[in-house]
UniProtKB/TrEMBL annotation:
Domain FAD/NAD(P)-binding: residue ranges: 5-320
Region forming the signal peptide: none
Similarity comment: family membership: Belongs to the NADH dehydrogenase family.
BP terms from Gene Ontology: aerobic electron transport chain
Name recorded for this polypeptide: Putative NADH dehydrogenase
Top-rank taxon, per record: Bacteria
Length: 400
């Protein structure tokens, strides 16, 4: 009898953690993991690559090093899942059959239909996009020397969420180096963050959010809170100030105002909203219990506030543990476990030696929080790539 086929789509936090757990369990089945790149990247480090405070290679490690035994790795882009035929259509390798599927494809940038955003902004979405941001900023600073056009030194960040704050923290750390490298006057550099909502960082207390704002303002960041972005052009951003439309000329416009699940979700005909599927309590897809969906493409309801949990690396890793256990249960015709999320706290980096966050009910600020953030990052690497990878890629330099 042919062995059952387990296919994992995506080698992000959820997919790679599921793979490691399944390989440890050694099921009587063949496992295939599919990813468009031959590397895993730490998505929570993308803001550092974009700002240029770490190199792209620092945030990545090869998938092949995590593929053990009879597991197969296919580097290819997923086009869609054919639920009725139980196949996955790939760009280069055609159709791959599955008996059980773990859908763990990641996120995409979400423009919310704002005119010009897709054409004229730089999203923090993956390794190539972050490399483009770094190169773009450096190019604009280089051009200033010959043009003396101060608008080239204006950087606008759309969105004051987690990604926006972490990028701003790294960028303000990098500015002194850029000033020296390109011989530009620091006082001519403007960094502006525009947010549509009336407040920022709703996952934290008001005190912590205010701390984050004040720390970045001390480094020269200007915040425009409660001002929806209306349009992006090739050299400016237009936002609403009450009934009035205002324009800021800029050399760089970073888009960090939102994400959605992979477009493969919609292409495959799943019932979804912004690329996310409301999954069953055991993480299976309603009507397709041979598919487990985790990470950025899954929506799990938080009964405390009757809203889906935010998509984070923390929840994806926890989902992966349940996904692997439930795949084993499906293979053995055993009951599946319902997913129970156990939040372990959230820490937002504000640069190399500054951060703030909540661990349980305890609020942390400053250097202590930044150390904890590095410990969290190192733990993530160890959980996905093992101790050897953590020792190569981990963040052990607590002082600079």
């Amino acid at each position: 009898m042919a062995k059952k086929q387990i296919v994992i789509l995506g080698a992000g936090y959820g997919g790679l953690r599921t793979l490691r757990n399944l390989q440890k369990a050694k099921p009587d089945a063949e496992i295939t993991i599919i990813n468009k790149n031959d590397y895993h990247y730490e998505a929570t480090w993308l803001h550092e690559v974009a700002a240029g405070t770490i190199e792209a290679n620092d945030a990545c490690f090869p998938i092949k090093d995590q593929v053990k035994g009879a597991t197969k790795f296919i580097q290819d882009a997923v086009i869609k899942v054919n639920k009725e035929d139980k196949t996955v259509e790939l760009e280069q390798h055609g159709l791959i059959s599955y008996d059980y599927l773990v859908f763990a494809l990641g996120f995409e940038s979400e423009s919310f239909g704002t005119p010009g955003v897709d054409e004229h902004t730089l999203p923090i979405a993956d390794i190539p996009s972050t490399k483009r941001i770094r190169e773009h900023i450096e190019t604009k600073f280089s051009q200033w020397k010959t043009t003396q056009n101060d608008e080239l030194l204006t950087i606008v960040v759309g969105g004051a969420g987690f990604t926006g704050f972490e990028f701003l923290g790294e960028l303000t750390n990098r500015i002194p180096y850029l000033v020296k490298q390109y011989d530009v006057p620091r006082e001519k550099i403007r960094i502006i963050c525009i947010e549509a909502a009336p407040s920022v960082l709703p996952m934290f207390t008001k005190d912590l959010a205010n701390y984050a704002i004040s720390r970045l303002e001390d480094r020269g960041v200007e915040f425009k809170i409660g001002h929806p972005i209306k349009e992006a052009t090739a050299d400016s951003v237009i936002y609403a100030d009450g009934e009035e439309r205002k324009e800021i000329k800029c050399g760089t416009f970073i888009w960090g105002a939102g994400v959605r699940g992979s477009g493969v979700v919609g292409a495959s005909g799943f019932e979804e909203r912004r690329g996310r599927v409301m999954v069953n309590a055991n993480l299976t897809v309603p009507g397709n219990e041979d598919i487990i969906m985790i990470g950025d493409c899954s929506a799990v309801m938080d009964t405390a506030n009757n809203r889906p949990y935010p998509t984070t690396a923390q929840i994806a890793i926890q989902q992966a543990d349940y996904a692997a256990a439930n795949i084993i249960a499906l293979l053995n015709d055993q009951p599946l476990k319902d997913f129970v999320y156990k939040p372990k706290g959230t820490v937002c980096s504000l640069g190399d030696n500054d951060a703030m966050g909540l661990v349980g009910d305890k609020a942390l600020k400053g250097y202590r929080a930044s150390v904890l953030k590095k410990v969290i990052d190192d733990r993530s690497i160890a959980m996905l790539g093992g101790v050897s990878t953590m020792l190569k890629k981990g963040k052990f330099q607590f002082y600079k």
